[in-house]
Amino acid sequence: MSLALPHLLSFLFLVLLLPYFTRAQTSKNVSLGSSLTADNKDSYWAAPKGEFAFGFQKIGMEGYLLAIWFNKIPEKTIVWSANRDNLVPGGSKVELTKDGKFVLNDPTGNEIWKVDFGSRVAYAAMLDSGNFVLVNQDSSLWWESFNYLTDTILPTQTMNQSSKLVARYSERNYSKGKFQFTLQSDGNLVLETRAFPLDSSNAAYWSSETVSSGYQVVFNQSGSIYLIAKNGSMVNSITSNAGSTQDFYQRAILEYDGVLRHYVYPKSSTNSPKIRRWPMAWSSLSTFIPSNICKDIVEGTGGGACGFNSYCKLGDDQRPNCLCPDGYTFVDPDDVMKGCKPNFLQQSCDKALPETELFYFQPMLNTDWPLSDYEHFQHRTEDWCRKACLDDCFCAVAIFRNGDCWKKKFPVSNGRMDSSVGGKALIKIRKDNSTSKPSCADSKKKDHSTLILIGSALLSGSVFLNLLLFLAAFLLVFRSNNSKPLNPVMPGMNLQSFTYEELREATNGFKEELGSGAFATVYKGVLKSEDRYPVAVKKLNNMVRESDMEFTAEVRAIGRTNHRNLVQLLGFCNEGQHRLLVYEFMSNGSLASFLFGGSRPNWYQRMRIALGTARGLCYLHEECSTQTIHCDIKPQNILLDDSFTARISDFGLAKLLKTDQTRTTTGIRGTKGYVAPEWFRNIPVTIKVDVYSFGILFLELVCCRRSFEAEAHDEDQMILADWAYDCYKDRKLELLVENDEEALNEKKRMEKYVMIALWCIQEDPSLRPTMKKVVQMMEGAVEVSVPPDPSSFISSM
Ligand SMILES: *[C@@H]1O[C@H](CO)[C@@H](O)[C@H](O)[C@H]1NC(C)=O
Ligand SMILES: *[C@@H]1O[C@H](CO)[C@@H](O)[C@H](O)[C@H]1NC(C)=O
Ligand SMILES: *[C@@H]1O[C@H](CO)[C@@H](O)[C@H](O)[C@H]1NC(C)=O
Ligand SMILES: *[C@@H]1O[C@H](CO)[C@@H](O)[C@H](O)[C@H]1NC(C)=O
Ligand SMILES: *[C@@H]1O[C@H](CO)[C@@H](O)[C@H](O)[C@H]1NC(C)=O
Ligand SMILES: *[C@@H]1O[C@H](CO)[C@@H](O)[C@H](O)[C@H]1NC(C)=O
Prior knowledge:
The protein has about 800 residues and is of the alpha+beta class. The chain is built from 15 helices and 45 strands. The protein has a six-stranded mixed sheet with strand order 36-40-41-39-38-37, with helices on both faces. It has a five-stranded antiparallel sheet with strand order 29-35-32-33-31, covered by helices on one side. Strand 15 (about 165-170) and strand 16 form a beta hairpin. The protein binds 2-acetamido-2-deoxy-beta-D-glucopyranose (NAG) (6 copies). One 2-acetamido-2-deoxy-beta-D-glucopyranose (NAG) binds near residues 213, 229, 233 and 235.
């Protein structure tokens, strides 16, 4: 519109015209008495152009969010919600009642959320701007969602003094999280940590420095976000022009990691097919703030960007990664911002039993935990610093930098790794840590064996501790016996047991087949419960002699695991001849059909899937109390959920291993093309077989082709692994991703990924990295060195 006018004028123009526009855009009215129910997928109210919709969106298995979302893109990205802290179950209803209320009720009639409007409102409408409004009889607005900020602002939306965006808790948990973006009543605009779970602010990590001048945050039609003074002049530019709102969907969101990001998404696929996703406009760094959250957050109380005992490092994609130092693991691998815990017992402070001999230091360059120090010494040597920390049972970490030595106490906070930090951190770790193992993510699912493990670790300790422990164990068992769920469950697990009849009904007589393999056929089903969960029912063929064992193995392995990159097992049926497993239903099918099907997924989606798969495998290998080798990693066994997140499925071949065992029994498992060479040789089979299969899969994801193509133009290109190494060696990696503009634009990253994949497919299993290392390399926390020729091992045999 008025682009030629000076921006002050055009802004005023916009403000003056807004009420008029809102009326003009209202082409679909929601009349009094209308309602929507959280059940039917397609029940929502769309804006006239269809770009936005208002209605219910299902959030995982947890419930429904009454929300507004971008409705013309596959991601259905949510921009606003009414009940972020209070998801509602299926069957809940939102209604514009005739007696003057806009109300959300759960199925039992409890009021979850409401707007009271008496009798003034004539209708409601979802506008093309993404604003949901209640309109009075005189056509003025009574209520608008734009005035109730959640974590996102949209073009034409403003933020007034004393209003704020509050980040969600995690990527998939919409409740209020740990960061907020506040335009204070004094005019200063700040990013700050919240004193979670309280609603107060804790420490600011970015500020516009506009005390007494900042008046309103504006997100204008041409995609600029800035702060204006009361007289309309701009006092601070937050993100600069990222493309017009005519061609791009835009949103700015304070994400769960504390970064405010301005995203754009091309509206038409013909416009620029290569960037059809939610990228940030990377060309300009000003499209997110702060520039390095890992360094910018320093809070006196609180853990910092990543939680206690962890450290934060910006990845290649400029996103913060939360990592644990050596000797530490995540308190909750599904919620890495909860911080890390040591894998070992702290040093004893008993004077009679000094443990100085039992600890060593793991150095980490360019790493620091500011503000956690309790002693500081100057003009010292590193050896002096090490000894001082070793002799001090309070010392968890020592920092040594240019002759300064700081002792840090537990828990350390505000951890960061960045080249600007300098010096080194010395992490104090107990030498013999073999007895204390990291346990599985979900403490609810922690089985008794973990407890016994910890118990035996303490056995050599004091009698008093043992007594305490047994008391605790007794209480735990007692409690879990008292809180028996309604359905029969297998001991120690939250699995539901189904009858064959129930599953026959759920699958409509095993009608819709989703896929089948040598041992099983998978059917789509819907559980009869009130939520009508869609599920995948896997029916194991009772013809197969091994299926009995396989069943037990699978149920036990999967029942204990819980990770967002694994397909969750919900239940099972073991009735006479019938053995079935009930899984979450994955709406986007398998990676095989996604990757090799008609429409090629984009580079970013592919790399997200690779990282998700790597994380899932890492969890199976390292973060469970029972190590699990998958043995059959391939695109058919990676499923995609509604947000295209990779979910590893099919543990049918996984063998349970005790953590100290390194070898499974013999017999080749797995699928041709993805199988590690040691299956064919007299070499122990370890978790490294999965690393190999992952490497092949990773190459397929990078190159978007199958690992073996009989019809390749060129014989050299038939076997992807060989061809990839040749291209890498000859510095011709672009051949691998021909026509893939996005990958070509990120050649450096692509090269790194190919290098990681080449490390994974080393014929010599001992050369292959662990999945943990793979994840760290992918995230940019660990450098990737030059990989050798993967097949040099055979040639030397
Ligand atoms: C919406 O309702 C208002 C007020 O009743 C009316 O003037 C307008 O024509 C309605 N619009 C549509 C598209 O029904
Ligand atoms: C900001 O203030 C203006 C004018 O007072 C008002 O119209 C608008 O609704 C307010 N916006 C928010 C988000 O509160
Ligand atoms: C989201 O996170 C909050 C805060 O930790 C937690 O209380 C809540 O249960 C989580 N909600 C879901 C649906 O997981
Ligand atoms: C508008 O207000 C700002 C901050 O209060 C001030 O710096 C600027 O000079 C004013 N501009 C005009 C045109 O009055
Ligand atoms: C939006 O703001 C930018 C930066 O101030 C300005 O250049 C542009 O003209 C504005 N667009 C509109 C439509 O007001
Ligand atoms: C203890 O942990 C460290 C770091 O994770 C590891 O390097 C070391 O090998 C472990 N020691 C034992 C005895 O397991």
